[in-house]
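Final paragraph of the annual report: two paired records, presented back to back.
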Amino acid sequence: MGFGSWMVPLIWAQATGTPPNPNILAPLALRRWCGSLTLSSPESVPSWFGIWAWLAALSALLLLALVLQGPRRVLGQVFDIAGHVRLTSAAIARLRRSGRMLAITVGLTVLSWTGSQTLSFSDPQGKEDLLLLTRSRSLPEIGLEQGVFAGLTPFRDVAGLSSNLPLLVLATVVIFRASADLLGGGFTPYGAPRKPKMSGWATVAWPCMVLVILYRLASLGSGSGDLPLGGCLMVEAIVVPVLLALADGVLLAWVLVELRNAGFGDAGADAFDTRGAVALMPGAVLACVAAVPSRYLASAVFLASTQLPTALSADPNLGAWVRWQLGTGLAVAQAGGLVIAGIAGAVVWSRGSIGEALRGYVRLIAAEGGRLVAVLAISGVVAGVAAGLTYIAVLSLPTATWLLNAADGYAHYATLPVGLWALAALVELGERSLPEATLAGADGPGPRNA
């Protein structure tokens, strides 16, 4: 039995005076989120909580756009059907010109998912989880509920790329080589063009990514399952989420740079734009935290709770707060993150600093707030429909040990293109919001071509 296997029942066993049934799905929901970024309901019966959270998040973003733009301009953008068609076409064009990025991302995702399925193919826990999930839900209810939660996390696949171990290893090797060249200094012959200076974040990025790789391998070897591996010191509740955010940020920055360069027609200039990706690292980390805040919240709260079993037993309020954070609180955090998830469209046109990214996001909402709301709404609906239909199709097969994991995996295949399209649309909106007088910078945006 892995480390997390005995902690989850302890966390959800702190409630007094209530039957065990209301919390029966909470441990499963936590494991699915930590293991595959599959947000699901922790409640024992279906509810409309997910869709209300999604609508509340879009309403909050719309309200913010109304404040910065004014009602007339916002509504004009929200209901500009022709404008949405043009934006969709422009985003697809960016993706088409970013063929290398698509090939690497999709190809290594298939490789990573195949390996994960191989390891868990015959695990009897998979069949138990599926029976538990279907005990109180019909197939259409599962499809609808999972679709709603997929719509609440449209960027999960691109903001959590460090879960893709082959891609993480490849990026680590590339950044390490670039960092070694930076530290080596390399002699530049007289008259030869000087190589552009690389950000010092490169020397931070690759050691953090190595630690994440080792942590992932240790988790696989320990049999801890899908839950975060803990059991050492309290500091891991801070260190592990920070390392995950840094690794996610580097990979998201690479995707953003590829999409940005595609607008200038030079997305295929280098095998990996290390310099550009590393320069955007701080802002890209912020974008990941905004897009999937529950990824880091779940790790931090769970790892902290494993160090405080006595306190959880002694303080019912603390135990209830932890259960809420690791259950319904994950969806609440994701809804809040959806309000600022569009910051990725500002980060890519900045020089990477957090302050510049925040100012750029305010500028983006002030210029394109209505279209930003439309992009998040469209991507949420499309991701939800695609994921819901996938669950209905896969789970209609005869019950097997691998079926629930396969449904989660195929749902991610369905939502990955949606997340990439939404990210490309954000890059396009970020470019449109740039001031006309913006000048080309070393690592920042260039003037938009006429």
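The closing record of the year follows.
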Amino acid sequence: MRNALIAIVLSLLGSAQAQLDQIFKKADKSLNQRSTSGLSNDKIIAGLKEALRVSTGKAVAVTGRPDGFLKNQTIKILLPQKLKTVGAGMRMMGMGAQVDELEVGMNRAAEQATPFAKQIFLNALKKMTFDDARKILTGSDTAATAYFQRTSTDELSTAFAPIVEKSMKNVGVVQQYNRVLASAPGGSALAGQFDLNKYVVGKTLDGLFLVLGEEERKIRKNPAAQTTSLLKAVFGAR
């Protein structure tokens, strides 16, 4: 399992497949004791942090751009469960455009909020301890994602909330939401019973962490071909 997670670090920033066996041996030795070659635990952690800085930056870039949520069917924000019946009824009545506009607005809000995760992830990395790094290096296929969820969810929620609220107002989501409820049979009964802003913040977090988790799984299985100078110093084969 440890060897698999070392592959995360290497594949994010790269390493030739032929080097992996030597890299694994050096990393494993360094995690348990000071290496005779002088490779320290501090350098192991530094290498892991560098890899995670890059991986989180990529995840933020992928989700925090136009259509980052809207055109990604895996994380696209759809109507809340409570409104699905209402939305289906509206589409049958030829009012699908209104439903589509509401979904577009929710996804645009998520795309505008996600870039603010970058600094929060960097702050979480600064607080990472050696014990945290060891658990990531020896943990499950999504151990790094779980670390960020545990250390960053509250701060991300707080940061995203005002951005989502402002974006939803700017693109007319609230007005469209109210029109949908007013136009749909039985929609008025839902008015005031659902916090749409909170729903979008939650779905934004779900999408961001899902992208991180999927990337983490792929990285463990597919080491790439290059390294940074720091990772060469930490993991490079001789």
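Residues 179 and 219 are 44 Å apart (CA to CA). This concludes the annual technical report; the extension proposal builds directly on these records.
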